[in-house]
Amino acid sequence: MIEILPNWHPVFVHFTIALLSMAVVFHLLKAILPTKNEYQVALSILAKSNLLIGTGFAIMTAIAGWFAYNSVAHDTPSHLAMTEHRNWALLTLGIFIVLALWSLLQKHKMTLIFIPALLIAGGLLATTGWLGGEAVYRYGLGVKSMPNSSGEGHAHQHGGGEGHAHQHEEGENDAHQHQEGEEHGEKTANQAMLDKHNESSSTTEHNKEEHKRDKSHNETPHKH
Question: Using one digit for the tens of pLDDT, what is the confidence trace for 205-221?
């Protein structure tokens, strides 16, 4: 695991997003449902536990992200994307820490300000996650290697043609690799030669048959 991943930030961030997102959902359901609803107790436990555990993972995610920020190879555009992601992440983390402490102090009933603040924090969390995905999948941050499309196999390119389009080299036709090393072009030439040979053999046999019939006809005595 340590040899595969350049850092541990991608591992912790999934727990952070999942737990804190569910904390927002459970708190919102708890606020919407009637006070005497049978699910209030369960929702209260789920909401608070997800918020506290998610905030703990968020702290670990931020620490791993800080090391990644200072160690992952990058260029100027990816550095700007990484910096923007970092700034949003720190702001989001700070708000969730405040909300987690607020949740510990308010043991029973939350104030009306808590839910809007939690919703804002959830929006910041989604924005931070989006920017993190942009940094990885658009700018390639933290990616050690890309799939190699050369060699055996082929690179798939889906688009307007629908289906598989194989890479060409300087406008050449598709040349698929086979076990015997033959290409379609060679097979076509060989097939043409074989067809020509068969046609020639067929013509020769036909001529022989005609010659036999003519000879037999000439040797047959005719009565006039």
Answer: 655 565 555 555 454 45
